[in-house]
Amino acid sequence: MSSAADAVTDTLRELHSRFAELRDGELADYIPQLALADPDAFGLALISMDGHRYSAGAADVPFTLQSVSKPFVYALALSLLGLDEVCRWVGAEPSGEAYNAISLERGTGRPANAMVNAGAIVTTALIPGTADATGFDRILECLSRFAGRRLDVDEAVYASEVATGDRNRALAYLIRSTGLLPVDPVAAVETYFRQCAVQVTALDLAAMAATLANGGVNPLTGGVVIDEPVAAQVLAVMATCGMYEVSGDWLLRVGLPAKSGVSGGLIAAGPARFGLATYSPLLGPTGTSVRGRRALGALSERLGLHLMHNPALAGSTVTLVTTADDLPSAPTEEQERALRERVAVVAAQGALDFTAAERVLHALDEPRPEETESVVLDLRQVTGVDTVARTMLRSGLARLAEGGRRTAVVDPAGHLAVGPGGDPAAPRRFESRDEAVERAARDLGTL
Ligand code: GLU
User: Fold this and answer.
1) Ligand 1 in contact with 278 (CB < 6 A)?
2) Fewer CB near the last or first residue (10 Å), C or N of the chain?
3) What is the domain extent for residue 417?
4) Pocket test for ligand 1, best of 33, 63, 66 (most atoms within 8 A of CB)
């Protein structure tokens, strides 16, 4: 019996013991080496955006990536070639078909998406070698950076797939016949088999998923593996295509971008929250881990991770309006009342994005607009302002100034990057709220 740990580990352990009982499913045997896996092996892992690692069960047992490699090689292709070029070769539509189906677009022969084998083989073929590195060297290096440690190939699994991989070779030849494979089919498939045979653990997979969830920055190493827009593109394709013919049902019930592999690995990413992974080699009819699907489904429900649920949690980025309470006291009651009516103070807190900026601007404009002559935006409790929010706040404040309002920001951290003086529409910047309010009151002649 394991000792009590933290709340997250307890949850993982509980799910582990609940689903370990499940013995449904079969080991993959079309790659003979995969049939040697221990059917009882079952591990769960979760890595937070701060790089906190949690696990239960066989989270250190090595297995091969198989199709879980696909989103990461897709990320590399997008990084090297850009979305438009990659889309010329591989589509982004869910195929609704099995992983090894001939999912080629009618007319063009373009593979449906990069998560099914046809699209993954083309994606792999798009990675060019350089003077000192083969395409596969670059893939391995990229996968390793996602995992945060040097990964290697399981040569036995690789050889096993090379010996039996005729269907994938056939797919590659078929695609080549439509002109949409830039390299020799045999070479393309061999590189693809190699990437499938890269060995990882559930903890590695959780780090890889966490890197996608964290906008391309590995939370364990701090290394920028891919740019944020690429991470978003990969997550989008995982959300619609990552679970093959059950992708729609998975998004409906579990609500997370995910990718499965026939060796029993399964990843899911909670954007800006967690990277999740499971390992259990017993597969259901669609080639995904039975325990993994159940455990990640339960975890998403337990932790409220479904993407379509409550996307902006009130409280995490909220703003609050305080007019009267924090104003300095004026010499007379009448002056104090005037001050309250004429100066509005809005305090924002947390990380400001588009949603939060909309609330802040609405709050600034709302209190008795006819009477309020001066507005003070207090950003001391703000932890960050993204580019969209910064532009919105600056132009919103400028608009208020144009409408005749005096505007000020309390922004010691310089979130709004408002310079001293210069632009008459720019708000005045103060270090403390008292200073800003006192100045507003003085300007209005109420102090
Ligand atoms: N290497 C496997 C294949 O191409 C990967 C399939 C999967 O993991 O879904 O058949």
Assistant:
1) no
2) N
3) 318-444
4) 66
CA angle 41, 197, 23 (to 5 degrees): 25
Residues 158 and 283 in one domain: yes
Arithmetic mean of pLDDT, 281-294 = 96
Amino acid 1: pLDDT? 39
pLDDT digits (tens, 9 = 90+) for 304-332: 889 988 655 555 455 556 555 556 666 77
- For residue 282, which phi and psi values (nearest 5 degrees)? -80, 120
Read off the pLDDT of each residue in 164-191 and give the average, rounded to a whole number. Answer: 94
Ligand 1 atom with least separation from CA of 287: 9
Is residue 408 within 8 A of residue 427, CB to CB? The reply is: yes
Detail the DSSP E strand segments found in 77-207: 152-153, 198-200
Choice from 64, 100, 153, 283 to test ligand 1 binding pocket (greatest atom count within 8 A of CB): 100
Report the distance separating Cα 119 and Cα 171, nearest Å: 10
Alpha-carbon gap, residue 226 to 247, rounded angstroms:
25
* CA–CA separation, 43 and 60 (whole Å): 8
Asked if residues 412 and 296 have their Cβ atoms less than 8 Å apart, the reply is no
Mean pLDDT, to the nearest integer, of 252-277? 96
CA distance 172 to 192: 11
Provide the CATH number for the domain around residue 213.
Answer: 3.40.710.10
Neighbours of 4 (CB within 10 A): 9
pLDDT tens per residue across span 108-118: 889 999 999 99
Which residue's CA is the nearest one to ligand 1's atom 4? 117
Task: Give yes or no: residues 326 and 285 share one domain.
Answer: no
On whether both 295 and 322 belong to a single domain, the answer is no
Determine the 3-state secondary structure of 75 from DSSP.
Answer: helix
How many domains is the chain built from? 2
In 3D space, the residue among 237, 242, 215 whose CA is nearest the CA of residue 226 turns out to be 215
Query: 157 CB under 6 A from ligand 1?
Result: no
The amino acid at residue 435 is E
Residue 438, both tokens: 């006192």
Statement to judge: residues 37 and 182 lie in one domain: yes
Rounded-to-integer distance, Cα 445 and Cα 447, Å = 6
Residue 24: strand, helix, or coil: coil
- Asked whether residue 109 is domain-assigned, the answer is yes
